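Pipeline run #58 for the internal structure catalog. This entry was flagged by the ingest filter as a single-chain record with no existing model, so it goes straight to prediction. Upstream metadata was stripped on purpose; only the residue string is passed forward. Reviewer on rotation: M.T. Logging verbosity set to normal.
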Amino acid sequence: MGISVNGVDITDHAIEQELPHHQDAGNPLKQSVHELVLRSVLLHEADRLAIGGADDDARIEALFAQEVKVPEADAAACATFYRNQPRRFSSGAMVEARHILFQVTPEVPLELLRATGQAVLAELRIHPERFADLAREYSNCPSGAVGGSLGQLSQGQTVPEFDKLLFRLAPGALADHLLESRFGLHIVQVLRRVDGAALPFDAVHAQIADRLKRAAWQRGLHQYLRILVGRADVEGVALEGADTPLVQ
């Protein structure tokens, strides 16, 4: 591939070794090269600053600890976040929901599965009373036998992408798109909602402060990586910043 960072080659063998760690990425080869380039840039910076460690991972962690500094979240920022996220800071919230699952399998092309799901969703927009019948006919979830019913669900009980949609939909609402999760494609409807009681600010202040600090650290890290990448001598790939695709 002819890729190097500050005169040091990133070999095809190194890329082959990295590939298995990124098989879930949209482009595993691009992601592998991206990771190796960033890692090399970071280790060169650790060398320049004479930062040691038990191994390369420890040296990179020590580099981040020394160079990426973010302030603590103040009380005003925490209070604003608390006011703007009322559902996030409540206890006892619950929904009654049902779904139709179109499970992804090697035998069924995703395009065909998506087309089937879209057709069923279109039918439900016209005839919402057919939900239970269509769930029994199409759903690959055991809940299909009972019309797609998932019963009552509390926040955090399902996978994050499903949970987020469930607690955003109004009672009686049918999601206007197919939800994609690790299980497949879902048509989702919320039948009933029980809103939880708000948690007092003092009970969640520390949690919010930690969340805001982690978000600030991620932004700081992203900026730091862009600076290092812009300063590095990278050959064999077009590179403008840490978030730029490394293989064209």
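catalog note: The chain is about 45% helix and 15% strand.
catalog note: Helices lie at 12-18, 28-48, 56-67, 75-84, 110-126, 131-138, 160-166, 201-231.
status: ready for reviewer M.T.
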